Amino acid sequence: MKIKTNAWRFALPASAAMAMLITVGCSQGTTKKDVANAQKNVQEQQQDTAQAQKEGQQNIAEAQRNAQERTANKPVTPEEQNEAQQKVANAQQKAAENVAQEQQETREAQTKLEITQQNYQATHDRDAYVKDVNQKLANYKQQIDQLKQQASSAQGANKQALQQQIDTVQNQYDRAQNALDNLKDANVKDWQAHQNNVQVALRQLDNSMQSIRR
Fold it and tell me: Which spans in 154-194 are helix H?
């Protein structure tokens, strides 16, 4: 049974829509500060790598000078010659290890920066989507509230039929809200996997609301 309603105005007035504050309310995400911190970490690691290279070159040069001073202008035994050469080799190996370690940490920092940037973009996209859905749900809630007001003044069969319609759209509204809550609680990189559930719930709700309008 269709209920004729003479007070249906589902669209929010422009001023009300502009004034309504929609809170995203997602459980976690990546911020600009996170990206800035990751960028800073890369820069620091690059500086550490450059410093390790500089110190390594200095240590190698010092080992070479010491070896030259030790063996210059005086007889040395083969053992002493080998010891001096070994110290140079040790300095070279240590320098190479230090630089390799810093380079590895720089690569890890760069990888983390890339992931952080990706998560920041995902956070931005998710929050924009959530804000849009929140606005739609706010509009639907206003429409449902209008229906409830009409039901409160209706009588007899009209009241019963209208209440059935209200129960249907209220349940669909709740399902859409729950689907959105699940999306907001999901890991930011997985939010799109929950998007279809929200879309289906919104489509069902919208279809029901359209049938009431007719």
Answer: 156-185
